[in-house]
């Protein structure tokens, strides 16, 4: 029997398992699919501090940023602390960006319009300026999740971290009120605690325990270009990205997020829309992403897109993740609902979860992330 | 009358697409046909401009070119147009293309016929990425295009009846074909009752050609490695058992190797529209069609290799069946809308519309195609030919060792192997490596997901939802 069962082998589940194993707990990770088969494998690998308003999520992001740097030293995966450059189309937007940067208290540098091309030679003319965030980074999230699980299994003794893939959780084992394990497609797995790290499907897993988590899918498309010689140095995005991230709209919102990867491809995001788990490719969305990228980097006009993919961010109504014990189901913990920031926030989430599981004093106040903060679903 | 410019849009200008388009156009439908090549023909009837301008060559090609000319008089031919996506739109289908000058163009129609053919199925082995190593289809394309293979020392290997025309073509073009190494037991063709009946004539023709050029045809043999410093210089030929495990080997010097292991149907447009798929006799995912070549999605038909690999003759018959069925449904829906406006009850457009003799021919040819697939399977022993550094994916330069590493890290299927190790993420979108990765993952190949079926510049993509420019309608 494990001390902890983690449901979900995505980035957040991997981080929870790694930090729990590091804290001396025996961990079993179960996933109905492979490692990183859900939203982890459908994003860009953002590790951002730049796009967050001051508050608990930014605190979590800053802690996570520090942890990512130390994980990158131990793990064998791509981690690029390339920095993020937010650009403004107008003077007014530039003033708003500078104002936000001042409030965040995050390491940054204001970039004048005349200096933009020193940072990004291919940027369009006529932009009003920007803000550079050196701490923003990019990680290859699938490999990072897999390597972190491997590192946890290798580093903390035999049996510290077990991986059970292709195992679907179908319910919970209870002892009285208390959650003491999971029922799965391959029999019951017992454990001292269960961590729901099921990302966009976190609400469904919570429902199996009879508790409500209002996690909804928020779809995003990404365009991938043919491999190019290095062309874009930072993660470059427009100010609209910040407002879209924080928006509650169910309708389509797009903003340009453009960056090169180590494979030479350029990734182009980002779109947000709440359309359930609709997997139909939308030509209008792809067209908008392309248009916005070309507006930002005119040299991309003649570059070919060779594929696109989409994923479903785990959206919570207040845009904060759900992290911590669920008082409605003792023994059940949640670590999900990170929307588009799950990769960036994963290490801090795992670290915090390990502290909560072992009764250590948490580095951050977990109150803003508590699972029972939402109104109960109307009957 | 539908509100679309075209009653039928056909994607693919090979035997199936041309037959479907011509049949529907002759029945009075307004038809558009889109193909990425500059000329009709597809893989099988690929031909040079000279052949088009001066008929009088092979009778099969002449027949095809005649039908192509008839089609050009009755339908919109959008040649050199690459289809990058298809979508449902306002009760019809939208075929999103890129024109030869990289402009976006959306062709809209009430119905769609998917006739997108197939590409080579690639089985990797050490050295398969050396210059001088060609797929069988690639060699055939070279022969039909420029024919620059004269004087080469060539080996043909792999499995399946397609090796015969490739070897005969190479020999005919002046290459010194050292041998054909067929991995199967070989006598399958003659011993199988259906096979013996079906293609005996054609196979005998190739056999005669090979005999004339003194090309030995050896079975239970395979090329298990290619060698060379920068270009092909020699191959290792193995005797193999039924599971394709190596019994013994020898080295043969050559500078050209054509390898064929059958074909993978191109079904991504159907997959993108949500068409149902099934595993064919050889495990390839193909589109499910009914007796009228209808897919499971209303308004979408498929013919030729996307419904199961069976060669150009079957493809052409299926195209004609689809053309008849589309025309029948078009007539039914036109009548229904007339009735609806006069308050009469609607009828379902269920009729096949195709002559019985055509349906019977299709039945026989399909049985033959399925028997061929069973007679020339790819056996799993090829995985034993691989070395750690053998490339699986050429586009992303992923060796076998990285695939194995991904599996060790928790990639339990082909998709997660792709996510962790990148095979299939490059230019060809897994068309080349997809089969091998599925095999290494221990699963049947799954329907390919390629929302962007062909590369498109970001500039063209950005303008692809602008007010569409649709080509001229046919005169009628």
UniProtKB/TrEMBL annotation, chain A:
A molecular function (GO) term: oxidoreductase activity
One GO cellular component, as annotated: cytoplasm
Keyword flag Membrane: no
Keyword Oxidoreductase in annotation: yes
InterPro entries according to UniProt: FAD-dep_OxRdtase (IPR006076), FAD/NAD-bd_sf (IPR036188)
All copies of domain FAD dependent oxidoreductase, residue ranges: 3-356
Pfam families reported in the protein's UniProt record: DAO
Coiled-coil region(s): none
UniProt keyword list: Oxidoreductase
Protein name: Glycine/D-amino acid oxidase
Source species taxonomy: Bacteria, Bacillati, Actinomycetota, Actinomycetes, Streptosporangiales
TrEMBL record, chain B:
Superkingdom field: Bacteria
Annotated FAD/NAD(P)-binding domain residues: 7-307
Pfam families: Pyr_redox_2 (PF07992)
Region entry Disordered, spans: 329-355, 445-476
Keyword S-adenosyl-L-methionine: no
Keywords associated with the record: Oxidoreductase, Pyruvate
InterPro entries per UniProt: BFD-like_2Fe2S-bd_dom_sf, FAD/NAD-bd_sf, FAD/NAD-binding_dom, Metab_Enz_Cyan_OpOx_G3PDH, Opine_Oxase_asu/HCN_bsu
GO molecular function: oxidoreductase activity
Feature: compositional bias, Low complexity: 467-476
Name of the protein: Pyruvate/2-oxoglutarate dehydrogenase complex, dihydrolipoamide dehydrogenase (E3) component
């Amino acid at each position: 029997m494990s001390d902890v069962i983690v449901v979900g082998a995505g980035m957040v589940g991997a981080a929870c398992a790694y930090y729990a194993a590091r804290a001396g707990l025996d961990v079993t990770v179960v996933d109905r699919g492979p490692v990183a088969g859900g939203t982890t494998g459908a994003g860009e690998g953002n590790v951002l501090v730049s796009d967050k308003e001051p508050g608990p999520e930014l605190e979590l992001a800053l802690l996570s940023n520090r942890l990512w740097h130390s994980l990158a030293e131990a793990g064998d995966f791509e981690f690029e602390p390339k920095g993020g450059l937010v650009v403004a189309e107008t003077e007014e937007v530039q003033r708003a960006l500078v104002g936000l940067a001042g409030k965040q208290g995050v390491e940054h540098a204001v970039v004048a319009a005349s200096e933009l091309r020193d940072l990004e030679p291919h940027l369009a003319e006529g932009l009003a300026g920007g803000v550079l965030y050196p701490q923003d980074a990019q990680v290859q999230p699938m490999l990072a999740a897999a390597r972190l699980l491997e590192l946890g299994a290798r580093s903390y003794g035999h049996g510290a971290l077990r991986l059970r893939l292709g195992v679907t959780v179908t319910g919970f084992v209870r002892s009285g009120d208390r959650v003491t394990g999971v029922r799965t497609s391959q029999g019951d797995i017992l454990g001292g605690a269960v961590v729901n790290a099921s990302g966009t499907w976190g609400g469904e897993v919570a429902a199996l325990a009879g508790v409500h988590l209002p996690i909804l899918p928020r779809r995003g498309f990404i365009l991938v270009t043919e491999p190019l010689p290095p062309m874009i140095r930072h993660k470059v995005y427009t100010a609209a990205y910040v407002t879209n991230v924080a928006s509650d709209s169910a309708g389509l919102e797009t903003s340009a997020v453009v960056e090169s990867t180590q494979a030479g491809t350029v990734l182009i995001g980002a779109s947000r829309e709440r359309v359930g788990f609709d997997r139909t490719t939308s030509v209008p969305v792809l067209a908008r992403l392309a248009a916005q990228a070309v507006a930002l980097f005119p040299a991309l006009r003649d570059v070919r897109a060779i594929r696109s993919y989409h994923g479903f961010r785990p959206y919570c109504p207040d845009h904060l993740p759900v992290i911590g014990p669920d008082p409605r189901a003792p023994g059940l913990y949640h670590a999900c609902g990170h929307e588009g920031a799950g990769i960036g926030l994963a290490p801090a989430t795992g670290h915090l979860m390990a502290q909560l599981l072992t009764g250590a004093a948490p580095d951050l106040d977990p109150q803003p992330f508590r699972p029972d903060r939402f109104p109960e679903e109307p009957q | 009358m539908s509100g679309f410019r075209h009653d039928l849009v056909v994607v693919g200008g090979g035997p199936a697409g041309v037959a479907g388009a011509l049949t529907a156009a002759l029945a009075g439908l307004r038809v558009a046909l889109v193909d990425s090549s500059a000329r009709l023909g597809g893989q099988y009837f690929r031909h040079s401009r000279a052949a088009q301008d001066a008929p009088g060559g092979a009778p099969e090609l002449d027949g095809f070119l005649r039908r192509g000319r008839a089609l050009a008089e009755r339908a919109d031919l959008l040649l050199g147009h690459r289809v990058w996506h298809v979508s449902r739109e306002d009760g019809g289908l939208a075929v999103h293309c890129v024109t030869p000058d990289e402009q976006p163009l959306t062709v809209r129609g009430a119905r769609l016929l998917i006739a997108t053919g197939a590409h080579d199925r690639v089985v990797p082995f050490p050295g398969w990425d050396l210059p001088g190593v060609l797929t069988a289809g690639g060699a055939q394309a070279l022969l039909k295009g420029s024919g620059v293979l004269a004087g080469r020392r060539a080996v043909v290997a792999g499995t399946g009846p397609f090796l015969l025309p490739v070897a005969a073509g190479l020999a005919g073009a002046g290459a010194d074909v050292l041998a054909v190494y067929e991995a199967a037991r070989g006598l399958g063709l003659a011993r199988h009752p259906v096979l013996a009946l079906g293609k005996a004539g054609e196979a005998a023709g190739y056999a005669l050609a090979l005999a004339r050029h003194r090309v030995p045809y050896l079975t239970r043999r395979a090329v298990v490695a290619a060698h060379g410093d920068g270009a092909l210089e020699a191959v290792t030929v193995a005797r193999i058992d039924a599971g394709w495990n190596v019994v013994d080997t020898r080295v043969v010097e050559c500078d050209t190797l054509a390898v064929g292991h059958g074909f993978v149907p191109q079904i991504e447009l159907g997959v993108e529209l949500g068409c149902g798929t099934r595993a064919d006799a050889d495990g390839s995912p193909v589109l499910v069609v009914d007796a009228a070549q209808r897919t499971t999605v209303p308004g979408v038909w498929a013919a030729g290799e996307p419904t199961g690999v069976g060669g150009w003759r079957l493809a052409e018959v299926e195209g004609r069946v689809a053309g008849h069925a589309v025309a029948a449904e078009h007539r039914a829906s036109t009548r229904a809308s007339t009735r609806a406006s006069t308050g009469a009850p609607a009828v379902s457009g269920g009729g096949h519309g195709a002559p019985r003799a055509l349906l019977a021919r299709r039945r026989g040819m399909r049985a033959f195609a399925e028997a061929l697939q069973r007679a020339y399977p790819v056996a799993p022993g090829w995985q034993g030919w691989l070395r750690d550094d053998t490339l699986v994916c050429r586009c992303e330069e992923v060796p076998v060792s990285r695939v194995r590493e991904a599996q060790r890290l928790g990639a339990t299927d082909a998709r997660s192997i792709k996510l962790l190790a990148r095979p299939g993420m490059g230019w060809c979108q897994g068309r080349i490596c997809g089969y091998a990765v599925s095999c290494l993952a221990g699963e049947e190949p799954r329907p390919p997901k390629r929302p962007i079926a062909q590369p498109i510049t970001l500039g063209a993509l950005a303008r692809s939802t602008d007010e569409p420019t649709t080509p001229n309608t046919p005169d009628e």
